[in-house]
Amino acid sequence: MQDPARGADGKPINVTVRQYDELFVTSSEVPLFYENPLTGDYQDYVGGRYHAMEIFNATGHSSFDTARIPAKLMQILETRYPAYLTPPRSDSMSLTMYSITVGQFAPMLQNLGKILDKASAFAETKKLEAGVIENLRIAPDMLNFIKQIQLSCDFAKNSTARLAGIEAPKFEDNETTLAQLKARVARTIEWLHTIKADQLNGAETRQIIVPLRTRTLDMQGLAFLQKWALPNFYFHVTTAYALLRQAGVDVGKADYLGPT
User: Fold this and answer.
1) pLDDT tens, 220-260?
2) 148-173 pLDDT per residue, tens
3) What does the pLDDT read at residue 2?
4) What is the pLDDT of residue 252?
5) For the chain, how far is it from start to end, CA to CA, in angstroms?
6) How does pLDDT run across 60-117, given as a tens digit for each residue?
7) Is beta strand 207-211 parallel, antiparallel or unpaired with respect to 23-35?
8) What's the pLDDT score for residue 69?
9) Longest Cα pair distance anywhere in the chain, in angstroms?
10) pLDDT tens-digit series, residues 53-76
11) Cβ atoms of 194 and 160 closer than 8 Å
């Protein structure tokens, strides 16, 4: 680690950095001492040096996109400051967009598939009529169990596809049985496993635009994943689990979390 910059008093200079979403703002004050070229009795009295305070304000984005750097500045950077074009990692973690998309979606869907097996066994043991489990809901105005499974799959595959810049497979929402729902989950997992890690390189800064009924999502990939894709995916998986648990199916946290 390099020694910190120090002021005239020998103390380290501290710089405060504030983050507002993807924007970083910093403000610092640096004391300046330099020789007075005019000299004079008064300057001798105060030490023969000017004393001033330089205030620096800077803003920047958390992403480093060389494509947005003007050509003239890019030329200067490449010639004089090439190290600036390869900024160090902010930490030592090897966290990637692949690990927090496919690496999260696929295992949770595998757990969901096993939970569906338990639901099928429960329906068979209790001799439930077709549709009882499939149409479960806690409140009259909520989506039923079938739709919770469909949306769990959709948020996994559609979000991954958008981040990779490709088309997701389209599934007809025509499932009516637990067996068909499990097949949909299996197809989603199979497709997710066709995605390669390098297809998601740089996805954190990809601009994602999703038209909704009342508004349009327009955000960069990382924000899309953190604030939309993952919360919605887990919402529907959790709701499906809760519906089965409330109905008496023998499932618990271990089934939801799966092997660790």
Assistant:
1) 999 999 999 999 999 999 999 999 999 999 999 999 999 87
2) 999 999 999 999 999 999 999 999 99
3) 46
4) 96
5) 36
6) 655 556 666 778 777 877 787 676 666 555 454 457 999 999 999 999 999 999 999 9
7) unpaired
8) 73
9) 104
10) 566 666 565 555 666 677 877 787
11) no
Token representation of residue 178: 């637990």
By the 8 A CB rule, do 221 and 205 touch? Answer: yes
Query: Residue 71 is encoded by which pair of tokens?
Result: 């050509």
DSSP 184-206: HHHHHHHHHTT--GGGGTTGGGS
